[in-house]
Specification:
By secondary structure, the chain is of the alpha+beta class. It is built from four helices and eleven strands; from the N terminus they run H-E-E-E-E-E-E-E-E-H-E-E-H-H-E. Strand 6 and strand 7 form a beta hairpin. It is globular.
């Protein structure tokens, strides 16, 4: 019994002090008076050297607090132009969400996705795989998530938002 309690205390202690390397960064462009809020980490998925995508959270300041407003994806080599794209996230518990992009036709490789409250709540699960589908060319790339920091990416972003702590980045 004592051994079980000791193991439980150690497990809780290790989880409490688990490293969360995701930080919120804040930058105000003095030339345009625009504010930029972003994270120092992203979910990076590559298949070879010329095909891949990066998943990043979209953050805003609302009522003097950082909030999750969606996700954006920067892709390369998955078709040349994008429109009506899908981002499917499969979690380790076999549930999944499929997000539809709201961004207009573009050839810059950028897709933007809104998050409903239900979808946002699902992002507190560990990730198993991510698929990006180009809605224009129907080319797709599915990546199995292997690194621990990638499996907990959305969990770590949520923790960083909950802390409401940020670093000011002074760029010109």
């Amino acid at each position: 019994m004592k051994k079980t309690v000791l193991i439980l205390i150690l497990f809780i202690g290790l989880n409490a002090f688990a490293q969360n390397n995701v930080k919120i960064l804040y930058h105000e462009d003095v030339m345009t008076d625009k504010e930029y809020i972003y994270t120092n980490e992203s979910l990076f998925s590559l298949d070879g050297k010329k095909v891949g995508f990066i998943v990043k959270p979209s953050l805003e300041m609302k009522n003097e607090a950082f909030v999750y407003t969606g996700i954006f994806v920067e892709s390369v080599g998955i078709g040349t132009c994008l429109e009506k794209d899908d981002l499917t996230i499969l979690f380790e518990d076999s549930t999944k969400i499929t997000l539809k992009s709201y961004s207009k036709f573009n050839c810059k490789g950028i897709s933007k996705f809104d998050l409903s409250d239900t979808e946002l709540n699902k992002l507190t699960k560990r990730i198993k795989a991510v698929r990006f589908l180009n809605g224009r060319s129907f080319e797709e790339l599915t990546i199995l998530v292997e690194k621990e920091k990638d499996k907990t990416f959305f969990i770590d972003v949520k923790r960083a938002i909950d802390k409401q702590v940020y670093e000011v980045v002074d760029e010109m």
